[in-house]
């Protein structure tokens, strides 16, 4: 019976782009282990056991395959049901273990050892192991390099002819960077294998016109694919004039890529045949999988399991296919007969239905694609994989993504941020606003309005647009014009009406337009040339918008030549509204033949507002790319062990004590799975250096007076109940109480008002300041998110909040505060103050935001934190109230831990 965690089982990508399945060893692996050992060369056996060991004894096999998954753990890697690598550790001390691995000779050099070490290291840390000891023969340089290059802190000694390496398993920045660099190379290579096949088989090729199978075959042939194409048909001798084969196994030569166009029920059998054939990748255009419900989802999981186990990646199912315009391959493995010319744009679409329309729109605009992938149900290959590939693809300068969901949001934002530092990433995210609807806050979700989605994309460097039209508007600038160095825009035209439209649109988009240069309706090409020369030479002009309406005499071609010539020699972007033509008209193209990038072509838009909006997107992106990313400051008073203990204690409680409910966000409608008692909430925050103002529950006016004396005057008396938002100036708060009589009167007033519906507490009064609200938690589309706003009715009515992804850098925290419209209240003197010494301490607020972000990012059990109010005054940012909800954490947190592909049920 299985006695190891489910997340110890995973699919992984190897350095050559293939895949393997990794899992703990079991007694049922005895025969596989014997066969594996028999295939090892004498040299590999000697390196592993330091002696000849041609055959494993039954006793050895029993010892190697029977482990306790605690003090003795072994993981195996399998490909097509063959065991190809083993790694194991054996504890020799409470926090120390010996580790060793062996990889079959035929699979050495594929990165198996490195990924095995990552996974066994993660398993060991879960079992309390902090150090690995590895004894390696000096001549076994490959194994020595695996340990040395892992990124862990390592020590090395040499004794009696053996190198002893000691590895500290605590993850470091170096080890994380090594892991992510290997992940990037492996995933990039796996996509390259799909996009650069040497041969393609079409399984389900049909002789019937307009069927999926025939369309896939004809598009491959019509796209001038540079390798052999093999139709697979159970009966036909030839399809579309090309010799056909009954099964993929009957094809005499190697097959790199298979396009699968058979009915859904037959796909798994086809995948198994492809596995036996040694196919590298699959494009499953068939429907009838996850999109139809649970039965289809189970079929889809089986498809992915079978393919990955055999080392194959899968695009789809229910997809349009993939294309690569590189003349070396000329791959059109899609259901669309017409592809745009070659160009610098890489396009990923989750929607198969929209894919063909998208390709047509690209061609109509005169743009070119480097690669195109329609992933459909995205069962395996996702946009994240493509970002890994496009990062190093020299043919791709701009990345476009049509997204319906983010399967691994943390990984998406990490990869997008890294890619966007080099290449623009433009995304349309359909499916609404990424709003989650928690079942009350106890569900642990942080809901996001649509504007928050845009800001989170911007934080990661992604240019989010509303629709496909805006996506292509932006792509025209990014692909064919340089980025602007600033927001100042020159405006040139022969129509004062259009020029004023440009100016107004620029102001609305946050740009800084110069006064338009109106050349008049009779302007010639020479007039445009001189005006452009002057504008582009001006240091305070960062980009230029040209609006042109043809006069009575035909000078359109002459003006187009001027625009092209100036665009080619300028390092500033030029966009235009030119004869109401959209895209890159022939007149404005520098190069329009297939295979050329069209660099220097001038994007044209049917309306001035469209041109300005696209230019504004490019300007904001350029500003993001040029800004400093900020740093994660070292913070004192963070105790992760204490926080872990508090979370464990809180989740283990059956029900809270009555006194636990009274204060800091405890609530009477207690949900034992997620609600956190007041003291637990205090302790959890304190473990990350977040101090909450103390208060004392009072059951009578006399007790309130005693509490006030203990806390020190002045104090407030407030009602504490889950339905009440305890804020200064509310009807359930009595503030600035300076005498026992004040306290007694306030207490009696609130007691009469609320009766037994709310407990009354006494809290020391903070000095006047600006009340704010900090919320943080997990959003199903983006992971850990922090929100900030002011704590007043006006801010709530206007939904004046800002959002950022956790963990925050110092720059993120500052931006988060400045992003709310009411931010000036934090940077001006408080009402009635006369001294700069009373200025709100915004630096303390920034630190508090960073601490909260670190807390929610570190512990996936934290579903939601609500600090309300946080009073910011001259002495700091003071947490006066709040609530915390916990939840059971998932076994595997996306983008944390060793490399793995997105999971399916094993």
Automatic annotation (TrEMBL):
Q: Which Pfam families match?
A: Acetyltransf_1, ATP-grasp_5, CoA_binding_2, Succ_CoA_lig
> Any keyword Iron?
no
Limits of the N-acetyltransferase domain: 20-170
Keyword terms of this UniProt record: ATP-binding, Nucleotide-binding
ATP-grasp domain location is 682-719
**Which domain of life does the protein's organism represent?**
Bacteria
* PROSITE patterns tied to this protein: ATP_GRASP (PS50975), GNAT (PS51186)
Output the InterPro entries linked to this UniProt entry: Acyl_CoA_acyltransferase (IPR016181), ATP-grasp (IPR011761), ATP_grasp_subdomain_1 (IPR013815), CoA-bd (IPR003781), GNAT_dom (IPR000182), NAD(P)-bd_dom_sf (IPR036291), Succ_CoA_lig_flav_dom (IPR032875), Succinyl-CoA_synth-like (IPR016102)
Against PANTHER family, the record matches this protein to: COA BINDING DOMAIN CONTAINING PROTEIN (PTHR42793), PEPTIDYL-LYSINE N-ACETYLTRANSFERASE PATZ (PTHR42793:SF1)
Q: What is this protein called?
A: GNAT family N-acetyltransferase
Originating organism: Nocardiopsis coralli
